[in-house]
Write a structure and sequence with these properties.
This protein has about 575 residues and is an alpha/beta fold. Among the domains are: about 170 residues, Rossmann fold (3-Layer(aba) Sandwich), CATH 3.40.50.300; about 160 residues, no CATH class. Helix content is about 55%, strand content about 10%. It is built from 22 helices and eleven strands. The strands form four sheets. The protein has a five-stranded parallel β-sheet with strand order 6-7-10-5-11, with helices on both faces. Strand 8 and strand 9 form a beta hairpin. Helix 4 packs antiparallel against helix 5 and helix 14 packs across helix 18. The longest helix is centred in the first third of the chain and has 37 residues. The radius of gyration is 43 Å and the shape is elongated. The model has no long low-confidence stretch (mean pLDDT about 85).
Length: about 575
């Protein structure tokens, strides 16, 4: 019926809800009573109008003639409106429309309806514009029209808008890869004494300068750079994840190896491959995001000095850097914005000869080595190896959730401190559980000495130039990751020999990736642990002597002239040594 009415093209039906009209006609025809209903308000309005309307009204209506229903509707509505206005009566638009329809169709059968069309809902709460003093007046016809319009037009339109907006937001989120920048602290992250007492204050001071929280009196406001270095396995990336999460910053992590040494520009179009292009786009995204953003460039040992130089202006008061976004050059102005930049790297890798930090960038950075020992913090550094390994062993995992004073007491018990008493624990612990934890800690402390010695030897060896070495480079590592792997395999009932065998097996497996350098590194490890046999000591001397001889006469591969010159130089040094020995003996 609604489709038929809509297709009829009847004049004057523009803006009319055809669906409601069809529903009304259906209800009237299906009722079974002859004619159409007429409300009491419309009847009263017509009766009063007919008493006051003169012959001019009938003449105007008759002059229109048949077939002019729109014009007749306009005429009748105008007369009725003028009459109600002149009388000062208040008439609802619905009653006026019903009276006009009745007047235009006098030949239709009608019956009187006495049902009330209005009501008032009381006791309502809210700030809807139709609610006044907690009441809402309702009129059936207008209420049905509004609800129908809401359910058929407004609600579907709003839902379509929400769906469209959600699709656009999802597409933009995928394009920007926002999920990659959500901070989420690893469950294995441990707030040890070293982090609380040393690293967090240092990092906090630097980020306060960069974010502008250092105070207006500080000349270093909104400047600087945080540069964290260490061998692998010391939690540089995890620490920055934790800091960004606690500060509520958007952390954009850029993968240095994915960019590589060949990239020298912040223009994604100049990247050699899709992976590098994606990482350069992330840098531009972080710069465009501006406030509340931490740009974390990881593994910078794989980046070129030319690319690192692009970030020098961010470390000064100008805080401006040029980049490319959406194919167009753009200058990012970060003055006054809560923006920080942190770089992390491992300068001790085999590709370290390619690692160059520009002097102007290094001079503006606060540089800290997470794998080295700060002066006066030796105890905290050593204890951090134990604290990070607690969650790796089932007998030690409960200690990670205890008060730090309880851990200190357990460590004293493991060292055999006579003044440490179990009844001083702040949280009681069953004797059997305490004994197992103490036994594991005792072995862990013994293993820590080896790990610390390996860590110190690794860093010292990495800092030496090949030309000045007197022994092969030492590449076994003593990081938190190594300590955790050793802790996993410790048993409370093992003895010293079994612990030593465990350390041997661990580092023997680590040395397998060193191929030709495995023997030299394992011999050096045995020397560090004081476990060299006479045969191994003799072999270690041979290896060192061969290494020095090779360094002296090796030259470049295939460079025969270089080898000859180096051999002559070595011969001259040996002759000088013989001469010195003779002169020393003669004197």
């Amino acid at each position: 019926l609604a489709d038929a009415l809509a297709a009829s093209g009847t004049p004057g039906t523009e803006g009319v809800d055809i669906g409601l009209a069809a529903a009304y006609l259906y209800e009237e025809l299906a009722d079974g009573r002859p004619g159409f209903v007429t409300g009491g308000a419309a009847r009263a309005l017509l009766e009063k109008f007919r008493r006051t309307a003169g012959p001019a009204y009938d003449e105007d209506l008759a002059a229109l003639g048949p077939g002019s229903l729109p014009a007749a509707h306009q005429l009748v509505t105008a007369w009725l409106t003028a009459a109600t206005t002149a009388s000062g009566d208040t008439t609802e638009p619905g009653d006026l429309a019903e009276a006009a329809a009745t007047e235009l169709c006098p030949g239709l059968d009608r019956y009187e309806g006495d049902a009330p069309l209005t009501a008032t809902a009381e006791g309502l709460l809210g700030d809807h514009p139709r609610i006044h003093h907690r009441t809402l007046p309702l009129r059936l016809d207008t209420f049905l029209a509004r609800t129908r319009h809401f359910t058929t037009r407004t609600l579907p339109g709003f839902r379509a808008y929400q769906a469209r907006r959600a699709a656009l937001v999802a597409a933009e989120r995928d394009r920007l890869r926002l999920d990659q920048h959500r901070t989420g602290v690893l469950t294995s992250f441990v707030r040890n004494r070293l982090i609380d007492e040393v690293y967090l204050p240092l990092i906090g001071d630097n980020l306060a300068k960069q974010l502008g929280a250092a105070g207006a009196a500080r000349r270093t406001d909104h400047s600087g750079l945080l540069l964290l270095l260490s061998p692998p396995g010391y939690g540089k990336t995890t620490l920055m994840e934790y800091v960004a999460d606690r500060l509520g910053l958007l952390r954009v992590r850029v993968d240095g190896p994915a960019i590589g040494h060949r990239v020298t520009s912040l223009d994604p179009a100049e990247a050699p491959d899709a992976t590098a292009r994606q990482e350069i786009e992330k840098i531009n995204f972080a710069l465009a995001a501006g406030s509340n953003t931490l740009l974390h460039i990881d593994d910078i040992q794989h980046l070129s000095p030319e690319l690192l130089s692009k970030f020098i202006p961010l470390c000064d008061a100008q805080r401006r850097v040029d980049g490319v976004q959406d194919g167009r050059a753009r200058s990012y102005d970060l003055r006054g914005k809560r923006f920080a930049i942190c770089m992390t790297g491992n300068p001790y890798t085999e590709s370290g000869h390619l690692f160059r930090v520009p002097d102007m960038l290094a001079n503006r950075a606060d540089v800290w080595n997470l794998g080295d020992v700060l002066t006066g913090k030796e105890d905290a550094f050593a204890q951090s190896f134990v604290e990070n390994a607690l969650t790796s062993h089932p007998d030690l995992a409960p200690l990670a959730g205890r008060d730090r004073a309880d851990l200190d007491l357990f460590l004293r018990l493991a060292r055999g401190d006579a003044s440490a008493r179990p009844d001083h624990l702040r949280t009681p612990c069953p004797p059997a559980e305490r004994e197992r934890a103490t036994a594991v800690l005792r072995h862990l402390l013994a293993a820590r000495e080896t790990v610390l010695a390996v860590n110190a030897a690794y860093i010292a060896s990495a800092a030496q130039a090949d030309e000045t070495r007197t022994e092969p480079p030492f590449r076994l590592q003593g990081s938190y990751r190594n300590m955790n792997r050793i802790a996993e395999r410790i048993s409370p009932v093992m003895d010293e020999a079994e612990l030593a065998a465990l350390l041997d097996d661990h580092y023997r497996a680590e040395a397998q990736t060193l191929t030709g350098g495995a023997e030299a590194n394992l011999l050096k490890l045995a020397a560090l642990r004081g476990r060299l046999t006479e045969e191994q000591a003799a072999r270690w001397e041979q290896v060192c002597a061969a290494y020095v001889r090779h360094q002296a006469i090796g030259g470049a591969d295939g460079d025969q002239l270089g080898r000859a010159v180096a051999a002559l130089g070595l011969l001259a040094d040996r002759l000088a040594a013989v001469e010195g020995a003779i002169r020393g003996g003669g004197s």
